[in-house]
Each structure stands twice: as C-alpha cells, then as structure tokens.
Please model this.
Amino acid sequence: MIRRESRLDSGLPRDVFTRLISISRSQRWLLRRQEKINSLFSDFTDEEDQSFLCDLLERFTYIDGETLADSLEEIGRKITIDWGCTPENTLVAAMDKSRYADSSSAVAWMIKPVLADLGDWETHKIYKKLTDLIDDVSSGQKIVIVDEFVGSGETLSKRLKWIRGELRKSGKSVAIYVATIAAMELVQRKDLSDADDFHTTVWLKQGINDYYSGEELTAATDRMIDIEGDLLPEVNFLKLSKYSLGYKKTQSTYYLENGNPPNNNFPVFWWKMRKSGQRRRPLIPRV
Model:
C-alpha cells in the first residue's frame, strides 16, 4: 500500500492519494514504484490532471510472471494443437529482423521449454530472427512468428508482406501463423491477410478512445496533449511529436514485468525529460 509519507512528500491531495491506494490494490505493480508515482504527480500538480492520470493507471494491463507463464502455455497449445505444428513441419521465429535486443526474441527463447514439454521440439527449430529462417523453411511447411506486443499492427502487416514476398521469390508455399502475448484491438483493423491465423492471449483497449465519446473524448485527448506539453520536445533525437498519445497514437497502457515498455504507451509514463530540461524518473522507463 502507498505509504502516508509518500503523500506528504509529494503533496498529493487527499482524494488523489485515497484513489491511488485503491488503484494499488488491483495494480499491485505500483507498490514497488511509490517514488516514481510521487515524481509523476509532482510533475503534474493540477488536480484534474492527476485524476485523469489515475484513470489511465487504473486501465493498465500489467503482465506479471504468472500471467506470462499462462500466456506462453496458451501460445504453446495454439501452436501444437490448433495449428497442428510439429518439429517436423514447423519453424518458429521471433518477429525481430534487427541486430539489437528485442522482446520478440525473448518470447522465442521463453517458448522453448513450453514446446519441449508439448513435443520433441529442439532449439534449432526456433530462430531468434525472422530473416534467419527464410532459407531453411521448405515448401509445404509452416512458420510461426512470435512476439510480445503488437501495437498499431503496421509493423506486423509490413513484416508479413515482406516474408510472403521472400517466399514467393523462392517459389515456396508456406503457412504463416502469428502468436503474441498482447495486442491492441487496433490490430483487427489492419490487413493481416498474409497470415493464415493470428492469435494473442490478451487484447488491449486504447486508454482514451475506448473509454470516452463525444465532447468527453475531445476533452480527454486535449488534456493529454496539454500534459505532454510539459515534456521536452526532443530527447536523444527522439521527437515527442512522433510519440504523442503513443506511437501511431495507439494510446496503450501496457507493461510486461521486467520488460522494456513499448513506445505505444503514453509518453507521460516513459519520457525521460521535462520541458525545463530536467531529468524525470518515469513510471515505466524504456530504452
């Protein structure tokens, strides 16, 4: 529970403090972030802004270790039972194509023991990069692409079109499946026709658009943009305008325990600098 001295240090109004205590009972990950909550609410002292931030905190989907284990088991069953994938007919790959560490590579690594438990899968059937399996997959086989989080769905759609194109160049007919821990409901509006099926264990709503309508929606959007106005417009070549309301305006409120939170989250929760040039202690810092 949030300590009383935390309220005194941050100067939180009683109503806001009481609400944060209530939120912490369901969003228990906030218990370990009291100092960062204090920092967040000391940055934004208008009580209506604080109430709005409480609304968003209440809507967060937090994936803890136990939930992650359940999600991996669900993905494993989807791969082996529903999609009929076996070590003989399937290659699994992270959605990542770059040289840098990526959460999809982590999911590919974590799914190994799950698949080993469900069948005779071996490590050479599971790739850390999507590009590495193009030459290895054979016509008539299956590909399963795994990832942690899908935001707007734009990257996924482009990635699917790319891999279909590469397979066509090689004259290979391959079934493609995608499985993720979490995905925004926005993904359902994207063209994912290059995948034979898409599965996520958690569907996520937008933090503003899916909770307000009409004048309230306009007011809530304007309030968040005003809040973002107190953040530094550019940090380490990252332009805040690109991430306003979350990348591609995704409006995510999502965090995987010990993970690198996606830039689809509202920047107020992860942006590093105040408009004054002072460094912040964001609630969910990201690299």
The chain is about 40% helix and 15% strand. Residues 65-204 form a domain with the Rossmann fold fold (CATH 3.40.50.2020). The two ends are 28 Å apart (CA to CA).
